[in-house]
Amino acid sequence: MSVPVLEITNLHKRFGDVEVLKGIDLTMQRGDVVSLIGSSGSGKTTLLRCVNLLEDYEEGIVAVAGEQIGYRQQNGRRVRLREREIARQRAMTGMTFQHFNLFPHMSAIRNVMLGLVRTRKMPKDEAYATAETWLDRVGMKDRKDHFPGQLSGGQQQRVAIARAIAMNPELMLFDEVTSALDPELVSEVLAVVKGLAADGMTMLLVTHEMQFAHDVSDRVVFMQDGRIGEEGPPDTLFHNPKSERLAAFLKSSKF
Amino acid sequence: MEIAQALEVIWAARWALLAGLGNTILISVLSILMGTALGLVVGLILTYGNPVLRFVVRLYSDFLRGTPVFVLILACFYILSVVDIQLSAYEAGIFALTLFCSSHVGEIVLGALKAIPKGQTEAAKSVGLTFFGTFFSVLLPQALRMILPTWVTTATEIVKASTLLSVIGVVELLLGVQQVIARTFLSLELYFFAGFVFFLLNFAIEKAGRFVERKVAIPS
Amino acid sequence: MDYDFNFAAVWRNFDLLLSGLGLGLVLALVSIAIGCVIGLFTAFGMLSKHRLLRWAAHGYVSAIRNTPILVLILFTFFALPQLGLRLGKIESFIVTLAVYSGAYLTEVFRSGLVALPPGLREAGLTIGLTELGTKVRITIPIMFRNVLPALGNNFISLFKDTSLAAAIAVPELTFHARKINVETFRVIETWLVASLMYVFACAIIAALLRRVERHLAIPG
Ligand SMILES: Nc1ncnc2c1ncn2[C@@H]1O[C@H](COP(=O)(O)OP(=O)(O)OP(=O)(O)O)[C@@H](O)[C@H]1O
Ligand SMILES: [Mg+2]
Q1: Residue C8 lies in a domain
Q2: Cα–Cα distance between A69 and A5 in angstroms, integer?
Q3: CA-based, 20 to 30 A from C9: which of A174, A249, B54, B91?
Q4: Contact residues on chain B for A147, CB-CB shorter than 8 A
């Protein structure tokens, strides 16, 4: 069996005295689509951010494509990698944010090009062509010269997805891609994500859209107080929850 | 008619007055440029510096901003000469204005960088940008746009403060005018003239600032 | 640099410095009080229906803000007597500073008034107050509280500007510092102490203002 795209072992994360992740184990193979569900504050966002090292973690190992993210072992101690190394590792995963976080001073296509030119050292014209292809893919090619302030929320999120995926990451991380959107804009973004899943992209996504999680995922992970409460194929998890907590959560999410 | 007389006097003294205006502009430009460069460093340290460095620079900035710029100019003028730094009044004045400008620009830069949402840095990191890449491609271009209006105001403050160098004997426009007054006693007309020239200068700076602001505005 | 510090001469004259500081504070207080009245009228002028009033208000603010304060001080003191308006040093300085601060306060009050919800005025009118009564009892008091921080900042910079009174020999802090400097040659000590006095005075004023703000804040 090949190296897992993502392998998390015994991950612990603290904010001050509060332990937010209390030992997470999760493995994803190439092409896996995994949804993280769970109530607010259960640690879903934090888990994603640890994979991208937007948060440091205190204990355990996060490995992407077999490479430990953020740290190396030296004489039995963990040493944080250098800034440049970490930057390279971050580019191995693509991330989208709840609030898009597009660069407001750059047009859509320049948003997508930035990482290609700066991190991947792609020549400008090649970066332009790549960015254009991906913008086309998310249905934003005709708006490529618009600035974020000139786009709707759904359009911004699609550009943000293009920005992340144009980097050709091993793994895509989606944090509640639709939660900041008006209801009528949700479907256009979810359609893009579904399309990417169908293409075989490896994806770890946090979502409150249960139907979507059900349709798109190979596996669903229910997080509960910083631990994985339950994990399995969507049908099993959604229709035969083992724990009371999950059953209650699903009920409150009106699934 | 006194106005006609005043205009004649001004015309007669035109080269001296133009030289004064030239000095005013040169002093202002040099102080603003050097003060802005130093101010960027001050702002960067206040934003990203380690605690010790930040504390030192915070003291520097608070001290300079708490001291009237006139006192700063006098202090630089008198002090530099007793510590064996041979600077002319002209240079000492520019030095003082540079310090003054740097502390104000530093605070503006700090404010702008802090006002950029954290998500911007995170998004830049997530596409693999290093600290420098993030700073130059993402943070600085946004910060500069935010800074521009206040920076232009600071520039006009420096132009106005440059008149204080007249007190330490630098012949900028105001002292140039005062020298003409000393010969002709037309203080009403000539002080008015001086005020008017400064008004035009600052008005032009403000208009130019607005123009650049519109040019670099992000479409939305 | 070998400079032997000796603060004795400065401490000997410390009461002079202190009295100068006190005079500066009084000058700033009186000026800002008059400035508030001017600013309030001009702010309403700016928002008036009459084009001429708006024009005059804008002209005043723009002229003052773009002219160096030193030119204004010298103009009032040396040039106005030509028009038969002869004022003592202190009166002349207060007039200048009041007119000067009036222009800055106009902006403060204008934005404060604009920021008020329009419903306030309407509510005042519906309970039977006149337009003037509504202004005096409702709009202005609320606006004042809202702009208190900006007013405080203006006061602090006005206080620092009192250092310029030294230019027409008003015996405030900077004037005394210069005198002590020239008489004792304790250059560094003098200016260090004088600057620190300004810095601490500003810090104390700022702290006091914050307390006043909290005290006057509308609960909720
Ligand atoms: N920067 C931080 N500092 C301190 N505590 C934090 C920080 N970020 C998150 N937390 C805490 O960590 C816990 C997990 O937060 P997290 O954002 O991962 O939850 P989540 O599952 O994504 O919730 P939601 O569904 O509301 O997005 C919460 O209790 C939160 O308050
Ligand atoms: Mg979250």
Answers
A1: no
A2: 12
A3: B91
A4: 218-220
Closest CA relative to residue A93, chosen from A111, A70, A126: A70
Domains in chain C: how many in total? Answer: 1
- Does residue C67 belong to any structural domain of this protein? yes
CB neighbour class for A145 (10 Å; exposed up to 12, middle 13-18, buried from 19): exposed
Beta-sheet pairing, A77-80 with A71-74: antiparallel
Ligand having the closest approach to the CA of A42: 1
Kindly give the confidence (pLDDT) of every residue in chain A, 255 residues in length, as a single tens digit, with 9 standing for 90 and above: 689 999 999 999 999 999 999 999 999 999 999 999 999 999 999 999 999 999 999 899 999 999 999 999 888 888 999 989 999 999 999 999 999 999 999 999 999 999 999 999 999 999 999 999 999 999 999 999 999 999 999 999 999 999 999 999 999 999 999 988 888 889 999 999 999 999 999 999 999 999 999 999 999 999 999 999 999 999 999 999 998 899 999 988 866
Query: Is the beta carbon of A56 within 6 A of some atom in ligand 1?
Result: no
Q: Which of C30, B121, C103 is nearest to A95 (CA)?
A: B121
Q: Is the dihedral of CA C119, C120, C124, C127 positive or negative?
A: positive
User: Do A155 and A142 meet the contact criterion of CB atoms below 8 Å apart?
Assistant: no
Contact C93, C73 (CB under 8 A): yes
Three-state SS at A224: strand
Taking CB atoms and an 8 Å limit, are A90 and B128 in contact across chains?
A: yes
Classify each residue of C187-204 as buried b or exposed e, where b means 16 or more C-beta atoms within 10 Å of its C-beta: bbbbbbbbbebbbebbee
- C-beta of residue A138 within 8 angstroms of C-beta of residue A196: no
Q: Where are the alpha helices (DSSP H) in B67-88?
A: 69-82
Q: What CATH number should be reported for the domain holding residue C206?
A: 1.10.3720.10
pLDDT digits (tens, 9 = 90+) for C66-119: 999 999 999 999 999 988 888 999 999 999 999 999 999 999 999 999 998 888
Q: CB–CB of A96/A89 below 8 Å?
A: no
| Dihedral, C51, C52, C57, C58 alpha carbons, nearest 10 | 60
A182 Cα to the center of ligand 1, angstroms:
23
Distance CA C163, CA C160 (A): 6
Q: What is residue C18's predicted lDDT score, i.e. its pLDDT?
A: 94
Domains of chain B (ranges; CATH) run: 2-216 (1.10.3720.10)
Q: Per-residue pLDDT tens for B43-58?
A: 999 999 999 999 999 9
Query: pLDDT for B169-210, tens place per residue?
Result: 999 999 999 999 999 888 999 999 999 999 999 999 999 999
Domain carrying residue C150: 14-216
Note whether B119 contacts A: Cβ–Cβ < 8 A: yes
CB of C143 within 8 A of CB of C112? yes
Residue of B nearest to C199 (CA): B66
User: Does residue C7 belong to any structural domain of this protein?
Assistant: no
Whole-model pTM: value is 0.89
DSSP code for B163 = G
Report the percentage of chain B scoring pLDDT > 70: 100
- For residue B126, with 0-12 CB atoms within 10 Å meaning exposed, 13-18 middle and 19 or more buried, which class applies? buried
Whether C5 is in a domain gets the answer no
Q: Do B128 and A118 touch (CB under 8 A)?
A: yes
